Amino acid sequence: MSFRVPVYFSPDYVLARHEFDTTRKASWVYDSLATVPIAGIEVRTPEPLTAAELGEVHDPEYVEAVRCGEPRELAESQGFAWDPALWTMVRASNGGAVAAARAALVEGTAGSLSSGLHHARRRHGAGSCTFNGLALAARAGLQAGAGGVLVLDLDAHCGGGTHSLLADDPRVWHVDVSVDDYDAYEASERWTLELVRRADDYLPTVQERLAALEGAAPRFSLCIYNAGMDLHERSGDGALAGISAEVLAARERLVFEWCRRRGTAVAFVLAGGYISATLDRAELVGLHRLTLAAACG
């Protein structure tokens, strides 16, 4: 069975001058859908977030720094050279994450081609993440009526920024299965963190962490899924030997089938994934398309 899945994208997602996979690949994936469509995907344009909406998660002084570029050190704290279009870009891409969360609660599954989310803190950016779209989407889902939210983070790196923003909210659970300890944090009962060092352990660990949620499943009605491809064995950052496209395809099927079986709405975004000497743009796009295909059933 295939599903209609709204997926949010705007050319503004890639508007900043800073050239990096995170600031460009949304358009590569979008262009691929125009050339080779995936049945069920319905591309929509999100509303950009306002400064006030960003300020519900991030410090208003930091939001203003990103808007105007001063102080420059704060405006560039995510690692990008600032230019005026950065403000437009991050309002749009985080707006897509929020729109996906709201749409998922109505339609069951939705996504955004957003990237660069889970390292950002309240008062500054980090690790190529300006604002934390996962936290913004979780807040929006709760405001829209979700009884609770699961943040499922399967990027290669740990989601320390999301932890710093949401760990104190009893309505939010977090499952983080990483292969690199960048941005690690202290785990807890509701905020689990697993570091996997062997490819053979990866899928079983994801399965085990989802199975451990069975008792909690009725307490959350929305999953925010950070779908990272940077653990692919040939990715430019975060790679783990033995993690092939086949392993990642199986992971995507596992996640979406788990959500559907439990009637849990799921909103996904595209997390890490980087071109390298052995992974070209077309292959990277193909990896991210695995998420889109699995979302459609």
Would you write up a description of this structure?
There is one protein chain. It contains ten helices and eight strands. α1 (21-35) crosses α10, α8 packs parallel to α9 (245-261) and α9 (245-261) runs parallel beside α10 (281-295). The termini are close together. Strands 2-1-3-8-7-4-5-6 form an eight-stranded parallel beta sheet, sandwiched between helices. The protein is 39% helix and 14% strand. With 297 residues, it is α/β, with parallel strands linked by helices.
In short:
The chain has 297 residues and is an alpha/beta fold. Helices cover 39% and strands 14% of the residues. The protein has ten helices and eight strands.
Residue fraction in strands:
5-15%
From the alpha-carbon coordinates, what is the Rg to the nearest angstrom? 17 Å
Figure out the total of helices.
Answer: 10
The chain-level structural class is: alpha/beta
Estimate the helix proportion, in percent.
25-40%
The biggest beta sheet reads: 8 strands, parallel
Order of helices and strands: EHEHHHHEHEHEEHEHEH
Oligomeric status: single chain
Strand order of the largest sheet: 2-1-3-8-7-4-5-6
Overall geometric form: globular
N- and C-termini, Cα separation: 6 Å
Mean pLDDT: 96
Low-confidence stretches: none
Work out the number of β strands: 8
